[in-house]
Design a protein that fits this description.
The protein has about 210 residues and is an alpha/beta fold. The chain has five helices and eight strands, in the order E-H-E-H-H-E-E-H-E-H-E-E-E.
Length: about 210
């Protein structure tokens, strides 16, 4: 399977709490819900197409617990059958079991990158990470992410966790596609190219 990271970002790179004020208030975050005003039918349709490419999902603990709380009760949503029915994996050193509310789910602990690498070797299309920025950061650093789908909202949040914090591992990317939506969302798809290249600008630079 190909490992695909899908993230909602603000213009200043915040990925925390895009969906609601109380979605994720950790660290004293008070500005959740910044992505919602920019949703539109075009993006909803595109997100549905992405879900249709998934054969499994991978989450960090915090995102998993939020999804496991909400999605079993959202049976009328068009994405519910996919999210509720496909295999799910949660990377966590604190969860000993995933609980019985959102099956099938498997907990990954210990050497998570090695276990994710094993999942990637299995047949299938996409192993998708939704949110779970800290997990995405660690797997980017490990060179395991194949594709990044970044959906950027036209807002500066000013606080909160960022997908690409200072001190993160450098990663080279190739732009594979981009589009905008009527609500102002900017959608970028990148393919990982490994270690980035660096150069010097100037007349003598080759």
């Amino acid at each position: 399977m190909k490992l695909v990271v899908q993230e909602f970002l603000s213009l200043d790179g915040v990925s925390q709490g895009p969906g609601a004020p109380d979605e994720d208030t950790s660290g004293g975050f008070t500005r959740g819900g910044w992505f919602v005003p920019h949703l539109d039918e075009d993006f909803e349709r595109l997100a549905g197409e992405w879900l249709g490419e998934a054969d499994a999902f991978l989450f960090g603990r915090r995102t998993y617990q939020n999804f496991a709380r909400d999605w079993p009760n959202m049976t009328d949503h068009p994405a519910a059958a996919i999210l509720n029915g496909l295999p799910k994996y949660v990377a966590s050193h604190s969860l000993t079991e995933a609980g019985a509310t959102w099956n099938p789910t498997t907990v990954l602990s210990g050497d998570v990158p090695a276990q994710v690498a094993e999942l990637k070797r299995r047949p299938g299309r996409e192993l998708q990470i939704h949110g779970s920025a800290e997990l995405a950061q660690s797997l980017l650093a490990a060179g395991l992410v194949d594709t990044l789908r970044l959906v950027i909202a036209p807002v500066v949040v000013g606080q909160g966790r960022r997908l690409f914090p200072d001190g993160g591992a450098p990663v080279g990317l190739r732009l594979a596609g981009h589009r905008t939506t009527p609500g102002g969302l900017s959608v970028h798809t990148f393919e990982s190219t490994g270690v980035p290249e660096f150069g010097t600008y100037g007349a003598d630079a080759s």
